[in-house]
């Protein structure tokens, strides 16, 4: 058995060093515990996805984690749902606006799909996701045109509450995973873009692929931009500024 990379002593020291009062430490410990639970869920989810891509059956996966096939599917297969929590709690203001914009684009649809989420990302033009797409797409505006051409033009009655499709739910899950993987405490538009690209099966992923926006190139660009922003923030102000 591989030893856990995080030790209890390390967590105690981290909390104690950042919070001088005992109640502040307790609050921070509760928050950290929730984050660790989420990390564990996404760790298992990562390897479930890997096993599925390798051809493992749900029966095999269930046996590996000590549950039935049905229980494994219930836990790891996304369902159509209007619910975004708990991941929505850590969304930035820009990411929340993207979801609002996605709902707007889906106003004549029965579902909110990856295509609507991608249009929301493009509309939030100040976000890193839109800037990444503009940097990588074959030519200006081609991604928007590709996704607009793929939209279902049939007007349908929108249910209340309106559900996200299974593809979109998976992309939102993978967006949180991308944030956790890079050690970020937030989910921004850039993570939503990485989620769409990692999901791979929805309309948005196909539109992005058709216009040359790949997962590898997007992730490299996003990581560089975030690291550059962090480094700029850390630079001391010049004397007399």
From TrEMBL:
Residues 88-228 form the Clp R domain. InterPro entries: Clp_N_dom_sf, Clp_R_N, CLPT1/2. Transmembrane segments: none annotated. Keywords: Repeat. Pfam families: Clp_N. It comes from the Bacteria. This is Clp R domain-containing protein. It comes from Saccharothrix ecbatanensis.
